[in-house]
Specification:
- It is a single chain.
- Helix content is 30%, strand content 21%.
- The chain is built from seven helices and nine strands; from the N terminus they run E-E-E-H-E-H-E-E-H-H-E-H-E-H-E-H.
- The chain is globular and about 45 Å long.
Amino acid sequence: MKEVNDQSELPIAETFSSIQGEGKLVGTPSFFIRVSGCNLRCTWCDTPYASWSPEGQQRSVSSLIDEAVASGLKHIVLTGGEPMIFDPITPLCNSLHKRGLHVTIETAGTVHRAVACDLMSISPKLANSTPTEHDPRDPGGTWRRRHEARRLNIDALQRLIDDARGAGRAFQLKFVVTGQEDVTEIDSLLDALDNWSNHDVLLMPEGVTPPSQEQCAWIVRVCTQRGWRFCRRLHIDLFGNVRGT
């Protein structure tokens, strides 16, 4: 097949086979393609090598397709960083989808692209994600200001949801929470969006270690009250915070 330009390249931090650790497809064996580069700088980012200090190498789209197919896995996860800021993500998604592979895109939802995927996994960033005033990684607060200005794009979020609904494809709204005060912000954001159901909303405890019983308890309580889903990070439970999982 020649759906892609062989010269199309993406900055890639890592590729690996593992299980999906988050969301509606948790536990599913998947091949991961992690792009390097992001338009945000979450204070608690668990993949700083793809955001705060992006690393990796340029890879052709065609080589990524070949590697994904060779993995033998039917589920492909495009993550980051932020995959939606790169133009070649569109031909990569479309080509993987044409090969009959199930494609999940992990995005913060700040950028809209019309891409072919089976699960649009949207993780809108709450105020808890903004770098603190004295973050040593951000002298002068440049990224703090950029992040706060960019972290929510209602128009892009709505278009991503509408695209998925219109194509009959799945999506999820996955929120990283640090405390009960986050629920008010989530309620406000959901009030600004249409075309979603409680079944699509997931709450995930922040952290790079398994959450405490106390942390889980209040999240479970909120999810039970609102009909949302509780979402642990299975890969953290199984492997810890290590790359390639």
